[in-house]
Design brief:
Chain B: Probable oxidoreductase that may play a role as regulator of mitochondrial function. The structure holds 2 protein chains of 2 kinds. By secondary structure, chain A is α+β, with helices and mostly antiparallel strands. Helix content of chain A is 17%, strand content 32%. Among the domains of chain A are: 127 residues, Gyrase A, domain 2; 93 residues, Beta Barrel (Elongation Factor Tu (Ef-tu), domain 3). In chain A, the strands form 4 sheets. Chain A has a 6-stranded mixed β-sheet, with helices on both faces. Chain A has a 6-stranded antiparallel beta barrel with strand order 14-17-16-15-18-19. A 5-stranded antiparallel β-sheet of chain A has the order 5-6-7-4-8, with helices on one face. The longest helix of chain A is centred in the middle third of the chain and has 12 residues. Chain B is α/β, with parallel strands linked by helices. In chain B, helix 1 runs parallel beside helix 10, helix 1 runs parallel beside helix 17 and helix 3 crosses helix 4. Chain B is globular.
């Protein structure tokens, strides 16, 4: 956060950057509500993991409305006459099909077809894009853009973001005078203002429910927050932490880098990198478009069954299979669980698991997970039957209904 | 028309049983007297903009195994837990039962540090009893005299669990099943308001007072439930309790089941000691060799079965089975959120169950009124405003209050349950609430008043007893509803019971329906996994 020294001649010592977690644009409001004093580190920002109770925060996502600070996401502005070509070279989807005012979920790969990261591409205009993702990507983007007429800027700190998610979220925004919000389709972008602050609102989110993401300059962040909270009184708005969101994202079928897979750029062991096919994200790979990063390798990979696969599984009984190993016929180890949850909405015991081929692809019977349960300090091992199922676990018509219902 | 199985009554137990029948591949029909499904788990709109949970109003006991096996979430059921609750006393103080354990402890200490410790001991004692009883819910109660291998093994299962409790805990269990809730709580607490708050669960729906033996069990019955593994937690069904039965109906229809509404049962058709089908009030006749009644045991056998077809001792057992309606219900549409003089504005505990009580004696006096054939002058109320959490039941900023009222007699000593008495009953309740919430009365835009008589007439629960019969020890397990007939079968071949009159009893639990289905399928030779493993 330090301005570079403007004159080398002046011997003013530059203050050291702060250590510890950094307050984000909504920190004052979050701190006042964080009754559990529970913070986690998200890209160096203090992000609430839970404010009151995970349970009630979770249910607000599926029942009313919730607010979650997403400012710590990495954001890159990509603009210029060649912007479309650069983004299309980056991601595996055919971004030429993405119209201005629309958002697309994307992944991007290295030359070997291994996934670097996932994120959302916002197209604000013919030559104007923004990429939102979890991991810093600036140098990767600059490498790809080399030789193109395009500017790439890290705008992570210039844009504050809020995820407003839940069945009453549209009604809440309408109460705030966002005319036409109800006609915004899923993955659409609109321009609005709240409390005099200009906003970009996208109908996107990480919950699999009706919801919006609100993007604004950090200077206006608190005014927008306060207006949302005031309007939220009638709509059951609740501020939530990451733990509740994580439950919703597992139900919704979204993967999380560093939990469900690792970026090819961060792995030490070569076999830890993953392909889109292994992630079950074939539908994001447009092999029919011209050259893009990893295309040649992906062409090759698309022709053979993946050596392993991340699959959604459902497990018998009710104990979540955290960190569990997966066995075939209770004996042969064939995989492991990455994310696990007792889904309070689906009332199902769900998880994502990596399964070595052919399990999870052609061999789906006789799979068991090994769950460790601690009951009053005594550990028990439980073998529970599981079977692969389709993603997402949770889906609801209100996510895509346009105009959305009142709740 | 001929079916494999006919279920009488589309309440939650009838629907549960029907779902399992249809899933087993049987051609199944439900007949229902109302033009909607639900029985006592309904959501009806009586004034534009509002939806009421007209009868039952909170959800906890519905077995998670059943929710999962019948895929109720896929069919639209969402259960939202609610936060805590409170009791307000006449001196302007309150005791808040907070869902955050640390906050609850601080609140208990505010009243009495001893009670804060007592609460931990109490919670452990109740949890131990719950652990003992919970596995019995989805099992058929063994018949102790039948001596069939299955009964013996089930008896052994219970005895083994009982024995595993240890000597001290075995004694505790017997005490718990027979004691009064007042005496039970005296062991742990000294603050009158705290005792009164907890005691409510011991008397709800029952014709007993807090000092009557047997009420400790009624409390346990209300604690056996859970929301997502949080034992004892209660929640709202999003959209009202009707969303439970609507989800069940969709699940049933998705399995190929058929529901006929709008005409009630006239009689069961019985020939040569076997059931042959049903005749409806509108004259429609349907054949089936398996008929399952979701109605209570009295309506099933006294009102709709030819007594000649039944053995005398069975009829005697049915006639002496006690119902005793003891509660009424008010559903109120509110123009805004009422304020409570004792509570800080926006207190989170207002989102839970609220009561207005000084002490246990006040409940006992309320019970005294009931014994004399009057509704309580100062009733125990279980008051909730679900619309603070559920956005679907009232317009934004407006609210719905569900008010369960204990005690109200089925028969009044003076007069009938006519409009004037119903209004006077509601007035008693509203004026009590008004003492703690001065703006409550003026916020009322519509109200539904239900006496035990109305509950009987409209819902079909004899004497308005919400459990289809008292939950006292003499009417539990192998005695429910009639000794020798506690395994969902009746003296008539092919005619079964699946209502709350059977084990394990009332509450929107679904367990009687699931257990009955298991017995029926066993008799029909279906050896299928119902998907009910915990």
């Amino acid at each position: 956060m330090n301005a570079p020294a403007t004159s080398a001649a002046r011997p003013v010592p530059v203050p050291q950057v702060l250590s510890g977690l950094e307050p984000g644009p909504f920190h004052d409001r979050l701190a006042a509500l964080n009754h559990q004093q529970a913070w986690m580190n998200w890209m160096g920002y203090a992000s609430p993991s839970v404010l009151d109770t995970v349970e009630f925060e979770y249910f607000a996502i599926r029942n009313q409305s919730t607010l979650f600070d997403i400012s710590p996401m990495c954001k890159y502005a990509i603009a210029g006459p060649d912007a479309e070509a650069v983004v299309n070279r980056l991601v595996t989807r055919d971004i030429r099909k993405l119209k201005p005012g629309r958002v697309a979920y994307c992944i991007w790969c290295d030359e070997d077809g291994q996934v670097v990261d996932d994120g959302t591409v916002f197209r604000y205009g013919p030559n104007e894009f923004r990429l939102c993702c979890q991991e810093p990507q600036l140098s990767w983007l600059e490498d790809i853009a080399w030789g193109y007429e395009v500017t790439i800027r890290d705008v992570s700190r210039e844009i504050a973001g809020l995820a407003l998610q839940g069945p009453t979220s549209c009604a809440l925004l309408r109460d705030l005078g966002l005319d036409g919000i109800e006609s915004l389709k899923p993955f659409g972008i609109g321009s609005f203002d709240i409390a005099g602050v200009a906003l970009s609102v996208s109908r996107t989110g990480f919950t699999g429910d009706l919801g919006y993401e609100l993007w604004m300059a950090p200077e206006g962040a608190l005014a927008v927050w306060d207006a949302l909270m005031a309007a939220g009184r009638l709509r059951g708005l609740r501020v939530i932490g990451y733990e509740a969101l994580d439950m919703a994202r597992i139900e919704a079928g979204f993967l999380l880098p560093k939990i469900d897979f690792l970026s090819a750029q961060t792995v030490l062991r070569a076999d830890r990198a993953v392909t889109p096919y292994e992630l079950g994200l074939d539908w994001l790979v447009a092999l029919d478009k011209p050259h893009f990063n990893g295309r040649r390798a992906l062409l090759e990979l698309s022709r053979k069954p993946p050596r392993r696969k991340l699959v959604a599984i459902e497990i018998e009984r009710d104990k979540p299979a955290h960190n569990a190993l997966v066995y075939h016929r209770k004996s042969r180890e064939v995989g492991m669980v990455t994310s696990a949850l007792w889904s309070p909405t689906c009332k199902r015991n769900i998880a994502y698991a990596w399964l070595d081929a052919p399990y999870g692809q052609t061999a789906n019977d006789h799979l068991w997970v090994e769950i460790y349960l601690q009951k009053e300090i005594r550990w028990q091992r439980r073998m529970a039957r599981c079977h692969p199922v389709e993603k997402p676990f949770f889906t609801h018509p209100r996510r895509t209904a346009t105009p959305p219902a009142e709740y | 028309m001929k079916y494999d199985a006919i279920i009488v009554g589309a309440g939650h137990n009838g629907l549960t049983a029907a779902c399992f029948m249809a899933r087993a591949g049987l051609k199944t029909l439900i007949v229902e007297k109302e033009d909607h499904v639900g029985g006592a788990a309904v959501s009806l709109s009586l004034t534009p903009g509002w939806t009421y949970s007209n009868c039952s109003y909170v959800c906890s006991l519905l077995r998670p195994e059943i929710i999962r096996a019948l895929e109720l979430p896929k069919h639209g059921l969402q259960v939202i837990p609610y936060e805590g609750g409170a009791v307000f006393n006449s001196k302007g103080d309150y005791f808040a039962y907070l869902s955050d354990h640390d906050a609850l402890r601080r609140e208990l200490i505010r009243h009495s540090p001893r009670d804060a410790d007592g609460y931990e001991r109490y919670a452990r004692a109740v949890m131990r009893q719950c652990r003992f009883i919970k596995p019995l819910l989805l099992r058929t109660a063994p018949d102790p005299v039948a001596l069939k291998p299955r009964d013996i093994s089930e008896l052994l299962f219970i005895l083994k669990r009982f024995h595993n409790l240890g000597a001290r805990e075995m004694a505790e269990t017997v005490r718990f099943w027979t004691m009064s809730i007042a005496e039970y709580l005296d062991q742990f607490f000294e603050t009158p308001m705290i005792k009164a708050y907890i005691a409510g669960s011991g008397i709800i729906g029952t014709g007993l007072g807090p000092y009557s033996p047997g009420t400790a069990y009624v409390l346990l019955h209300h604690y056996m439930g859970e929301v997502d593994g949080a034992i004892g937690a209660w929640g709202f069904a999003r959209g009202g309790m009707g969303s439970i039965t609507q989800a069940m109906a969709r699940s049933f229809e998705a399995s190929g089941g058929e529901i006929r509404m709008g005409s009630g049962l006239d009689r069961f058709v019985v020939r040569d000691g076997k059931v042959r089908g049903v005749v409806l009030e509108n004259g429609d006749e349907f054949e089936a060799e398996t008929v399952i009644s979701g109605m209570d045991v009295r309506r099933t056998f006294i009102d709709h079965t030819d007594e000649k077809e039944l053995p005398a001792d069975f009829v005697r057992g049915v006639k002496r089975y006690r119902f005793r309606g003891s509660s009424g219900k008010l559903n109120i549409a509110l123009d805004g959120m009422p304020s409570f003089t004792g509570a800080p504005k926006d207190a989170s505990f207002l989102r839970g169950d609220l009561h207005f009580l000084d002490d246990m004696e006040e409940i006992e006096r309320a019970y005294d009124d009931w014994k004399d054939g009057r509704w309580s002058a100062s009733p125990y109320v279980d008051f909730l405003i679900p619309t603070q959490i559920d956005p679907t039941m009232a317009p934004p900023g407006k609210h719905y209050a569900t008010i369960f009222v204990q005690y109200a007699p089925y028969e009044l000593a003076d007069g009938q349950w006519d409009d004037a008495n119903r209004e006077a009953f509601a007035e008693t309740v509203i004026s009590k609430i008004e003492r703690h919430s001065p703006d409550f009365r003026k916020l009322i835009v519509h109200k539904e008043i239900r006496s035990p008589k109305d509950i009987e007439d409209q819902v079909g629960l004899t004497e308005g007893n919400i459990f289809q019969g008292e939950l006292t020890f003499d009417q539990l397990l192998f005695n429910r509803p009639v000794p020798g007939y506690a395994q969902y079968r009746s003296p008539i071949k092919g005619l079964y019971m699946c209502g709350s009159s059977t084990h394990p009893g009332g509450g929107v639990m679904g367990a009687p329906g699931a257990n009955a289905a298991r017995e029926v399928l066993r008799d029909l030779g279906h050896r299928i996994d119902m998907g009910l493993s915990a």
